[in-house]
Design goal:
The chain contains twelve helices and 22 strands. With 485 residues, the protein is of the alpha/beta class. It starts with 7 loop residues before the first helix and ends with a strand. Pfam families: Glyco_hydro_30, Glyco_hydro_30C.
Length: 485
């Protein structure tokens, strides 16, 4: 039987696994340019990131219209790749702390080990509380602008230990960035962390210094901060921690306060990411901020989420491409996505995994340089979440039953994160038929990685062309494959 990440019996029984059952295939060492190693995850099978064969490239000419083909041109390069990962929130860390040491080790290896797991290289975390915290809190105990009471003691109980363990599991270093959901209440016009409100102009500099103090405090713990986003979802008045910035307000806060304060404190190297909200309005935000030279000089790029479908439409992938075409020197980072409205009956709903695959392929093909999932771990309620906004994660831990549950989303993400490594370059890759989605990268070691996703109900045989050679591949219905060659 082919190697699988989950034993078939466990899969049919509910996809709960124990550490000793994890058996993800190692990274391949194919003959240079001659063979392609294939890995497959497919619905209604026991294939989960499974090694499903090694194929030999053969000379090929003009493909026929009746054939289905993927065309890869290694000579055409696009954006560089910084990595894939997920958020270690308070909810993730609190759930993690309730597990046995064996289960903790299993989850850390599953996510962060590039040989026995899926090789995450990015962590996002929250600056004080968000909805996926057990309650609202800040890092200050008074209302002074000088922030003398600032401390991160709250995070030392659960979140910092988990981030440190994840970093160790990833090999000792990881790209860590942080996002705030709201300033402290006294800095806002509604005097509350929840339900929107705005940052009062009198506290612009104090709030800018809050980011600086957070960075210094985390780095004092031995956790280097790669960057920050200015505000999580700045156009959404949520029942949880939230704060509203128009594009013009975010621009002015960045260029007149946050950017200068970061530079003044020696953090000019930290990446500042704007927007951090959905694809629908990202073009307007980019036009306002990136067209202003004084603001743009402080912005590394733009972060975005996938929740624009709340209005009933389809994902607006073309907006990602528009921003990249309009501002090619700015970077694009997917900063959050999850499957909403948690329901334990849908742990294994295949469409949830396909949502990840579809988004990742389209986002990368539109110029995205890195991709960050939301919570890496949640419990059997889809939380904890102090406002009842329960959601799915790729891995859940049923802390009452003592089970670790892997969802299809975990494997779909793994088809990218395990094989496409930091500093890879995206290369030209297209499909001749709409049921097959594809993206391709070349890693620093010269290995090519092509991801192919079959959205259809039919098994498909396709050609993978690299220049004037090809391999012939079969992909199951509702499946995703990674080819390494």
């Amino acid at each position: 039987m082919k190697k699988t990440f989950l034993m078939a019996a466990a899969f049919l029984a509910g996809l709960t696994v124990k550490a000793q059952q994890l058996n993800i295939p190692p990274l391949p060492t194919p003959t240079e340019g001659k063979t392609a190693s294939v890995y497959t995850t497919a619905e209604n099978t026991d294939l989960r990131l499974s090694s499903t064969g090694t194929l030999e490239f053969k000379p090929a000419g003009q493909p026929l219209e009746s054939e289905i083909s993927i065309f890869v041109n290694p000579e055409i390069h696009f954006q560089s790749f910084i990595g894939i990962g997920g958020a270690i929130t308070d909810a993730s860390a609190e759930t993690f702390a309730k597990l046995t040491k064996e289960q903790q080790t299993e989850i850390l290896k599953a996510y962060y080990d590039k040989q026995s797991g899926i090789g995450y290289t990015i962590i996002r975390t929250n600056i004080h509380s968000c909805d996926f915290s057990s309650g609202s809190y800040t890092y200050v105990s008074d209302e002074s602008k000088d922030l003398k009471s600032f401390n991160i003691d709250h995070d030392r109980k659960f979140r910092i230990p988990m981030i440190k363990q994840a970093t160790q599991a990833a090999g000792g270093s990881i790209l860590l960035y942080a996002s705030p959901w709201s300033p402290p209440p006294f800095m806002k016009d509604n005097k509350h962390m929840l339900k929107g409100g705005k940052l009062l102009p009198a506290y612009y500099d104090a709030w800018a210094n809050y980011y600086v103090k957070f960075i210094k405090a985390y780095e004092a713990e031995g956790m280097p901060i790669w960057g920050i986003t200015i505000q999580n979802e700045p156009m959404a008045t949520q029942r949880w921690e939230s704060c509203i910035y128009t594009a013009e307000e975010e621009r002015d806060f960045l260029k007149n306060h946050l950017g200068p304060v970061m530079h003044k404190n020696g953090f000019a190297d930290k990446k500042i990411v704007v927007w951090d909200h959905n694809r629908d309005l990202m073009t307007y935000r980019a036009n306002v901020i990136f067209s202003d030279p004084e603001a743009a000089k402080y912005a590394w790029g733009m972060g975005f989420h996938w929740y624009e479908t709340w209005a009933g439409g389809q994902p607006m992938f073309e907006n990602v491409g528009n921003v990249k075409q309009s501002f090619p020197t700015k970077n694009l980072l997917f900063t959050e996505g999850c499957v909403e409205r948690f329901d334990p009956a849908k742990y294994q709903l295949w469409a949830n995994g396909e949502r990840y695959g579809r988004s990742m392929i389209n986002d990368f093909n539109n110029g995205t340089t890195g991709w960050t999932d939301w919570n890496v771990l949640l419990d059997q309620t889809g939380g904890p979440n102090h406002v009842g906004n329960f959601c799915f994660a790729p891995i859940h831990a049923d802390t009452k039953e003592g089970k670790v549950i892997y969802t299809p989303s975990f494997y779909y993400i793994g088809h990218f994160s395990k094989f496409i490594r930091p500093n890879a370059k995206r290369i030209s890759s297209t499909s001749s038929r709409s049921p097959l989605l594809t993206t391709s990268f070349v890693n620093e070691d010269g290995k090519f990685v092509t991801v192919v996703m079959n959205q259809s109900d039919d098994k498909v045989t396709y050609n993978l062309y690299k220049a004037n050679e090809k391999v012939v591949v079969t992909i199951q219905p509702h499946a995703i494959q990674t080819l390494v060659y």
